[in-house]
Amino acid sequence: MLALVATFIGFSAFKFAERFAAPDDGWYEVTPSPTDPENPALQSIGNLIPAPPAEDSTSCAQFDNEGHNCAIELSFDRSDPNNQPEKPATVQEAESDMLVSILGEARQPEEEN
């Protein structure tokens, strides 16, 4: 029984520490608002994803596409152990957070009307 309690406490402490760990640098999925897709306050930042291709005229790419934002590359300043960054919820939060740097963005192809 004691081993079970110790295991539970150890696992809980690990999950607690993990929850407050700084996010990883890299590319994050961006989901724009269907009603106002160019508004950074309404562009939700999702999960860490592989880097989008440099060029792709059919999907999310880092260069040449003129459509809606689909991914953002973030870097987090972890230099102060007492002031660790959190993953921003929106692109606007990323733009205004001194602990977050936006290194790049990727866009969808422009929609044809």
Low-confidence stretches: 13-18
Order of helices and strands: HEEEHE
Largest sheet composition? 4 strands, antiparallel
Overall tally of structural domains: 1
Q: Determine Rg (CA atoms, Å).
A: 18 Å
Instruction: Summarize the amount of helix as a percent range.
Output: 10-25%
Arithmetic mean of pLDDT: 87
Write down the overall geometry.
globular
Description:
With about 110 residues, the chain is of the alpha+beta class. The chain has one domain (about 25-105). Helix content is about 20%, strand content about 25%. It has 2 helices and 4 strands; from the N terminus they run αβββαβ. It has helices spanning about 1-20, 90-95, and strands at about 25-30, 45-50, 70-75, 100-105. A 4-stranded antiparallel β-sheet has the order 2-1-3-4. The longest helix has 18 residues, at about 1-20. Residues about 15-20 have low confidence and may be disordered.
Outline the secondary-structure elements:
Layout: H1 2-19, E1 26-31, E2 44-49, E3 69-76, H2 91-96, E4 100-107
Antiparallel strand pairs: 1-2, 1-3, 3-4
Gist of the model:
The protein is α+β, with helices and mostly antiparallel strands.
What key attributes describe this structure?
4 strands; alpha+beta; four-stranded antiparallel beta sheet; about 20% helix; about 110 residues; 2 helices; globular
